[in-house]
Specification:
The complex is a heterodimer of chains A (249) and B (374). Chain A is of the alpha/beta class and 249 residues long. Helices cover 37% and strands 24% of the residues of chain A. Chain A contains ten helices and ten strands. In chain A, strands 6-7-8-3-9-10 form a six-stranded mixed beta sheet, with helices on both faces. A four-stranded antiparallel beta sheet of chain A has the order 2-1-4-5, with helices on one face. In chain A, strand 9 and strand 10 form a beta hairpin. In chain A, helix 3 packs parallel to helix 6 and helix 5 packs across helix 6. The radius of gyration of chain A is 18 Å and the shape is globular. Chain B is mostly helical and 374 residues long. Chain B is 65% helix and 2% strand. In chain B, the strands form two sheets. Chain B has a two-stranded antiparallel ribbon. In chain B, strand 2 and strand 3 form a beta hairpin. The longest helix of chain B is centred in the N-terminal third of the chain and has 27 residues. The chains are: A alpha/beta (249), B mainly alpha (374). Chains A and B meet through helix 1, helix 2 and helix 3 of A and helix 8, helix 9 and helix 10 of B.
Chain lengths: 249, 374
């Protein structure tokens, strides 16, 4: 188990089945601290289920998910895992539509979450400073007083990434961040993710091969719930099994 | 908390109207043109109590997205606590002249006061129980429901079942709460005779005061950071979870708070109408309360007060003028509001009263429709 000492996330033989269908089949995956990893695979390969297992939404039938040194995530629920420092961005941009950009970030800021705190909480100068910083990073400073619902699709994606940053996670799970984005937005998003990756580990699930290539990181190809191939984008693109199940189609 | 203009107007109108009517009732003779008859005082006091029930419904439905169809259960429990105090206050002046046992217990041949009636002769204790019992019920019920992530229509159905079960329980004579007939024939409250117009006026003004206090409390809650989380839970529950919030705790806090708010309304209601019986638990009462809120404007708080008073004004008029038409009118009103005024009456002044973000349209089963399929 020496592998655990230098990993931030370690999925060990994880299996999840829904009514006999194996969404994840003995999946094992190792992520090093500070690493950015792209996960690709055809529909139904288990990408989203993998995210669900890591964030506590789905409990695996067998296997362990170790975060950091020895925290078994399969024993925890979503809020507990979020508080440990794992942030998740959904496939569909999920922000609080009725709240302003500012309030969205305020609610996401790392800090106390219990009602006995939020009932009396006042915005502190430190919180304002943090929100200001994040607004700059996600390029939404001018839009801080607009409601989430009034943002464009790409702006919502960035706001959600900003909310994840506000959480100050150690590990960021990002599900299809550039789906539906324009080319310019896609490029900016790749840049944003690289910026984030300087301080945090990131797992990106993506369909867009051009985007994955642009990220230039190690790629894991999933198929039928297990790892089919792993390596650089050139390596996996050349793998005949990958071509057969995914790229070739 | 800084108060906005809407809040000032609300407090001024609610308190002002109550004080004005009380003054016109007490200071003028029955023949004077400006005289407000005593029965109007009683009616207005009753509407104000309903407004407290409506505020409770709006807090949970409008801001936490939980469509409660059983809120009147907590209103009735508060009413029963007050009723028990008022029964003990009668003392030996009952029909049977028993200094300890209320009439209905003597009538049923009981010889001893049941243990759960102890202490209710003391007003302070009764008022503590008036808050504690509904809060405890809401705590247990809410804990079980929210922990198992029951949402949407299923939660509505079990709140409905809760109030129905309580109604059946309180109908039973051996529960010791007067069964079918409930409690009535109250004489006085804290020594003030309930028949006196001055007592009626005082209770009505007190009700107005509590409507304002509950309004300000609810407003504080929904404009605090807690309220922002609550709205976030209403609209996108799964997101709040992945941010580290526990939606079930937030729902529980607001559910317990709303139970106590409804209970205060019930406690003030009983001395003003002079009776409490199991029909207050009837499921239709809770549903009516939801209609008041929908008519006034869900998620606005002010709308809840407005809706409760106006719909009940309509009810009083209809049930005396055209009794058989009332239910059709109420149903028609609900359909009309849903179709043409989705934000209720407050929607007519929309931009000025938006103290907090809009609620999603009433027909979306909140909490389910937006559940994210990751």
């Amino acid at each position: 188990m020496t592998v655990q000492s230098n990993t931030i996330l370690y999925l060990d033989d994880v299996t999840v089945s829904f009514d006999g269908f194996r969404a994840l089949n003995a999946l094992s995956l190792v992520l090093e601290p500070g690493e950015m990893r792209a996960v690709i695979g055809p529909n139904g390969a288990g990408k989203t289920t993998m995210m669900d297992v890591i964030t506590g939404k789905t409990r695996p039938d067998t296997g362990r998910v170790i975060f950091g040194l020895d925290t078994d995530l399969t024993r925890l629920d979503e809020p507990a895992i979020a508080s440990l420092g794992i942030g998740r961005k959904f496939q569909k941009p999920t922000v609080f539509e009725q709240h302003t950009v500012w309030d969205n970030l305020l609610l996401a800021l790392a800090g106390k979450r219990a009602p006995r705190f939020t009932l009396w909480a006042q915005e502190t100068p430190e919180e304002r400073r943090r929100i200001g910083e994040i607004l700059t990073t996600i390029r939404l400073t001018e839009h801080r007083n607009r409601r989430g619902a009034d943002l464009s699709h790409g702006q919502k994606q960035w706001l959600e990434i900003g909310m994840l940053l506000a959480q100050e996670p150690q590990l960021l799970l990002v599900d299809e961040p550039v789906a539906g984005m324009t080319d310019a937005e896609t490029e900016q998003t790749a840049e944003l993710l690289r910026e984030i990756n300087q301080t945090r580990s990131v797992v990106v699930v993506e369909h867009d091969m051009a985007f994955v290539r642009a990220l230039g990181v190690k790629v894991t190809v999933l198929h039928e719930g297990s790892v089919l191939s792993e390596g650089s984008i050139d390596h996996v693109s050349a793998d005949p099994r990958v071509i057969e199940v995914y790229l070739g189609r | 908390m800084r108060l906005d203009r809407t809040s000032w107007i609300t407090v001024a109108v609610v308190l002002g109207s109550a004080v004005l009517m009380a003054g016109l009732n007490l200071a003028t003779g029955p023949s004077a043109a400006a005289h407000v008859p005593t029965y109007v005082i009683g009616l207005y006091g009753k509407y104000l109590c309903y407004a407290m029930l409506a505020l409770a419904v709006d807090l949970i439905w409008g801001f936490a997205g939980i469509l409660t169809l059983g809120q009147a259960a907590f209103f009735a429990l508060g009413g029963y606590a007050m009723g028990m105090y008022l029964m003990r206050e009668i003392g030996a002046r009952g029909v049977y002249g028993n200094p300890i046992l209320p009439d209905f217990m003597v009538f049923m041949g009981w010889h001893q006061l049941p243990w759960y009636w102890y202490g209710f002769d003391w007003f302070g204790f009764a008022m503590v129980m008036m808050l504690v019992v509904p809060a405890l019920l809401a705590l247990v019920f809410g804990y079980l429901a929210f922990r198992s992530r029951v949402t949407g229509v299923y939660l509505s159905i079990i709140t409905q079942a809760l109030t129905y079960a309580l109604m059946l329980a309180f109908f039973r004579n051996d529960m010791g709460f007067g069964g079918n007939n409930g409690m009535t024939d109250f004489k006085d409250i804290l020594g003030f005779p309930l028949r006196a117009p001055s007592t009626g006026c005082a209770l009505m003004v007190l009700s107005a005061l509590f409507v304002c206090l509950e309004y300000l409390l609810a407003r504080y809650v929904v404009t605090s950071r807690f309220g922002k989380v609550l709205i976030a839970v209403r609209d996108t529950e799964s997101r709040t979870r992945f941010l580290g919030y526990r939606p079930e705790t937030y729902k529980l806090v607001v559910f317990v708070l709303a139970a106590m708010m409804a209970a205060v309304g019930g406690a003030l209601y009983v001395p003003q109408v002079g009776i409490i019986n199991p029909s207050e638990f009837a499921p239709s009462n809770s549903i009516e309360a939801v209609i008041w809120v929908a008519v006034g404007g869900r998620g606005t708080l002010v709308g809840a007060i407005l809706g409760a008073i106006l719909v009940n004004l309509g009810k009083s008029w209809f049930t005396s003028a055209l009794p058989e038409v009332w239910l059709f009118a109420l149903g028609g009103l609900f359909i009309f509001v849903t179709l043409f005024l989705p934000k209720g009456l407050m929607g007519l002044f929309a931009p000025r009263v938006r103290i907090v973000p809009d609620a999603p349209p009433a027909d979306v089963p909140v909490g389910e429709a937006r559940e994210v399929v990751g």
